[in-house]
Amino acid sequence: MTNRAKAIRKTILEVANRARSPHIGSALSCADILSALYFEVLDIPKDVESFEKRDIFLLSKAHSAMTLYATLYHKGLLNHEQLLGYYKNTLPAHTDRDTSPYVEISAGSLGHGLPIGVGIALALRGQKNNQDKQRKVCVLMGDGEAQEGSVWEAAMFAPKYQLGHLIVIIDRNNLQGYGRASELVSYESIDEKWRAFGWNCQRIDGHNENAIKDAIFANEGSQTPLCVICDTIKGKGVEFMEDKLEWHYYLVTDEIYSKALEVLK
Predict the structure, then answer these.
(1) How far, in Å, CA of 197 to CA of 188, rounded?
(2) Rounded distance, CA 5 to CA 36, Å?
(3) From CA 116, how far away is CA 171, in angstroms rounded?
(4) pLDDT at 128
(5) Is the omega angle on the peptide bond into residue 186 within 30 degrees of 0, that is, cis?
(6) Would you say the pTM of this structure is higher than 0.85?
(7) Rounded distance, CA 19 to CA 251, Å?
(8) How many Å apart are CA 52 and CA 68, to the nearest integer?
(9) What pLDDT is stored for residue 129 in this prediction?
(10) Spans of the chain, pLDDT less than 70
(11) Res 52: pLDDT
């Protein structure tokens, strides 16, 4: 875990504590992924003049919105006042594109992010400016979300139209709202399924930022879309929350917040 990812996790804990909101486990599991994307991979500038040429990030697992907000805060794209308004008046529990230009989609119902990402990627490829072909469109999904039929419809579409600038990242922590994703609706081997649908696919340690970065950069120039399956741990970084289903729902009280900061590693 990098110091940057640790700082993002501390901010997630602060936000969850102030808001008394759930989904802390889901948020902690993808902190390294967003840290790598926003600081090492994606070009998302702050200045308005360059903003139209930005890469696109879509948080399809929008119940992890705290991670996006915390990452945008550390990137300097959200201020502290906005951050502390989470769950109250500035930032909703699930993403709303009207809250910030850096929040690309309104989401919450699972399975929508990839179809939207496919549409954006296709539209960018069709623009006259050839530079638009280089703009990345990155979708972060949960592994339970991969049970949605809409995901696989989009997965069939993208290779046919050679959307090589489309990236799907699956946060595979193997815990969804009611149990193990692999037990509720088993889809292993998930990496073989994505390859069978015509995608380049890599399976990596989702808490290793260098591995995330290398997997994405290795696909640059390809006309084949990329799926990166990130094996992660729900609640990563706070030992007593790790791989525990209850932290999909439990709230971060003052006592839990203090304890979490002590054990964050």
Answers:
(1) 14
(2) 9
(3) 18
(4) 57
(5) no
(6) yes
(7) 9
(8) 20
(9) 58
(10) 48, 128-133, 265
(11) 85
